[in-house]
Write the structure tokens for this entry.
Amino acid sequence: MKQGKIFSSSREQTLAIAGHFARALQGGEIIFLRGPIGAGKTVFVKGIATALGLKSSPTSASFSLMKKYQNKSHRLFHIDLFRLEEGEVFNLGFEEMLEDEKAVILAEWPDPISRVLPQDRLEMNFILKEGDEREIELRSFGRVSDERLEDLCKIAQP
């Protein structure tokens, strides 16, 4: 496991960090996004989707639980499990996501699926600071996620 921290001082900076990070994504990554409502998790997802050239802009998936965005070269699954318990997640189509080696899986409020998905994952914890400032704690579990954590820390350095 590796750890790191990045900082964002605005919504625009969070979008930019996510956009640069998207260029390092190769498919097969699983990213857990934690933090309170309004901390920037969905903003980060939007930045990734925009950089990947996905036409639809992700919105909070809280009411639909899972949304799939794709174009000819990229697939992104955006999952929001805010309202679910662990026993309620088994019929949501995780098998399709996990079989798709080119898909990027971004899961907000991921605790109900943390034991279902593979161990190799990047965890991001969004912490609210003063005003629009955010501290994002990073933890990686596995070789691929270790590389993405290093990529993200390089991108976000001032």
